[in-house]
Amino acid sequence: MGSGKTRANPNNRPTVRHPSHDHPLRVFKSQEGDEIICSGCELELIGQAYKCTKSECNYFLHKSCFDLPGETHHKSHPDHPLTLVHSPPYGQSTFTCDACGEHGSGFTYHCSNCHYDVHVGCAFVPESVEREDHEHPLTLLYNTPCKGREDGVTFICDVCEEDMPENLWVYYCKECDYGTHVHSCATYEDNAAKKGEEEGETSSVASEMKSVMDARMEMAMMQLQLDAIDAAGSYVGSWEPRRGYYW
Ligand SMILES: [Zn+2]
Ligand SMILES: [Zn+2]
Ligand SMILES: [Zn+2]
Ligand SMILES: [Zn+2]
Ligand SMILES: [Zn+2]
Ligand SMILES: [Zn+2]
């Protein structure tokens, strides 16, 4: 990269519409270090993406967020399908994610029956992660290991040391009774990533985590598309392995 930094005439490039936004969007490639936040998942925008064509409008979407399925059956919420909504439900400006416990203001997978909401990024976190500072892989649980305890003991995140409500998701090592929140506590964002973005070295753990998440998200979406196809009762058996690989 580097020398050929010519910008194509924007008028020559096709625009696309997305139901989440009133203006047309155009293909956009984000570089690491741009520090752009995706308006859908609210995570850093890296790789193939879309940008609003209005220069004053800071609306960006990952390609993967652009392509999110409108409905998903999620293991964390087996009784009802979750519906993708593009802005916080309940007429509020934010929602609380039932996976990580943090607020969101972008897209959510939502169950209106149960008022269950999950960041789209949290919906596709890997089922197992490794972290540099723990010797065992951590497994994703859809509630804390203390759920249902009658003695009132609550689980404490081993990274931020805060009490976790029993229905939050946890990355957990049973052997060591070690566990973390699934979002910021799982990704080192606050430690290495912030200042080392240009170096590329100090942020390697974080970006590795991000790319793992991206890859997992892509795989999960391929699976979701498959599920949707299965559910529709068509195309069964005609699955092509590279079908979901847009990037
Ligand atoms: Zn996104
Ligand atoms: Zn716009
Ligand atoms: Zn979340
Ligand atoms: Zn529900
Ligand atoms: Zn935590
Ligand atoms: Zn362990």
Notes on the structure:
The chain has 247 residues and is of the alpha+beta class. Among the domains are: 12-66, no CATH class; 71-123, no CATH class; 128-190, no CATH class. Helix content is 20%, strand content 21%. The chain has helices spanning 63-66, 120-123, 184-187, 189-196, 204-232, and strands at 15-16, 25-30, 47-52, 60-62, 71-72, 82-85, 95-96, 103-104, 108-111, 116-119, 128-129, 138-141, 155-156, 163-164, 170-173, 178-180. It has a four-stranded antiparallel beta sheet with strand order 1-2-3-4. A four-stranded antiparallel beta sheet has the order 5-6-9-10. A hairpin with a 6-residue loop joins strand 13 and strand 14. The chain starts with 14 loop residues before the first strand and ends in a 15-residue tail after the last helix. Residues 189-209 and 229-247 have low confidence and may be disordered. Residues 19-65, 75-123, 134-185 form the DC1 domain. Keywords: Repeat. Residues 1-23 are annotated as: Disordered. It comes from Brassica carinata (Ethiopian mustard).
Number of helices, counting only DSSP H or I runs of 4 residues or more:
5
Residues in helices, as a percent range: 10-25%
Which range does the strand content fall in? 15-25%
Distance between the termini: 18 Å
Roughly how many Å is the radius of gyration? 19 Å
Domain DC1: 19-65, 75-123, 134-185
InterPro entries: C1-like_sf (IPR046349), DC1 (IPR004146)
Keywords: Repeat
Region (Disordered): 1-23
Topology:
Elements: E1 15-16, E2 25-30, E3 47-52, E4 60-62, H1 63-66, E5 71-72, E6 82-85, E7 95-96, E8 103-104, E9 108-111, E10 116-119, H2 120-123, E11 128-129, E12 138-141, E13 155-156, E14 163-164, E15 170-173, E16 178-180, H3 184-187, H4 189-196, H5 204-232
Antiparallel strand pairs: 1-2, 2-3, 3-4, 5-6, 6-9, 7-8, 9-10, 11-12, 12-15, 13-14, 15-16
Bound molecules: zinc ion (ZN) (6 copies).
